[in-house]
Amino acid sequence: MLFDVYGDNAVYQWIGWIIVFLALVGFNEIARRTKIGGITCFLVIPGILTAYFIAIYAGAAAGAEWALNNPTYLYMNSWFHYAKLYAATAGCIGFLILKYHWGSLGKAEWFKCFPFVIVAINILIAVVSDFESAVRAFGTTWVSSEGVTLYGGWHNVFNGVAGILNIFVMTGWWGIYVSKKKQDMLWPDMTWVFILSYDIWNFCYTYNCLPTHSWYCGLALLLAPTVANFFWNKGGWIQNRAYTLSLWCMFCQVVPMFANDSIFAVQSVNNPDVNLVVSILALVANVAAVGYVIYRAKKLGVNPYTHEVFKGTRDYEQAMLREENAA
């Protein structure tokens, strides 16, 4: 078993998972289908939350009781949560610029590599967090600033390496397009090869380093963009992922007790042996994915990062049918 989902709360834990999954799918659709939805979700709401976070820390510095006892201050105070929230939101804003061709950036050819850059940054944030556990407590445990017990060991090292490899599974950095009706930013070369290797690696990261949240952010949060990509938003996975990740981070930063300590809360078994097995799977999956990218690049005789290497595959061609200039 990966999670402690049993007993009197099991029904509520599954209900919570379903609610989170459906909410992420629904809010992603609101954000992607209309310009006002995207602006509200990734410019207006983050602006309000930033003011809220500043007020909390200013209040805490002044010794205000309401701030010192605020759940955000107590349970979501690590560098990782803020880095992930703002990196994901920056990605969402960049994707809005690209799909609506806002300003000179939205029309610049060089800015098409922004999705690669921001995804690589997001991956590296998690990689650093994995390595942090290995350095802090190799072979033992440590307690984070948020009161979560974490194991450090080879599982962190293996998954950190898997994350670095995952960056090199992203191909066709400049192959960024806009869908009809400008609903989506498309990255057709980001096919199932990257999506599957990323999902396995990222699940492992959450399992290693976010054991109190992994039931939601390691499963529901990863499945929401993947399901959307495979069924109705082909080629739009990276936009789906950024949108749902940003929205989830905003929710958790304000309402951390939903996942931490409520009737819906689920803990992973937090067993280093289980973590090791999952991490080995993540490493193997990403070694295989990099190998497949090399194979495709050699087959086509191209650089996999300056050129698209999955042209002719089913995923790529289905995504390109959605491109705004497609016949």
UniProtKB/TrEMBL annotation:
Report if keyword Transmembrane is assigned: yes
Query: Which of UniProt's keywords are assigned here?
Result: Membrane, Transmembrane, Transmembrane helix
Q: Which residues cross the membrane?
A: 12-31, 38-59, 79-98, 110-128, 157-178, 213-232, 244-264, 276-295
Name a Pfam family for this protein. DUF5692
Keyword Protease part of the UniProt annotation:
no
InterPro entries named among the record's database cross-references: DUF5692 (IPR043747)
What's the protein name?
Answer: Uncharacterized protein
Q: Which organism is it from?
A: Slackia isoflavoniconvertens
Task: State the taxonomy lineage.
Answer: Bacteria, Bacillati, Actinomycetota, Coriobacteriia, Eggerthellales
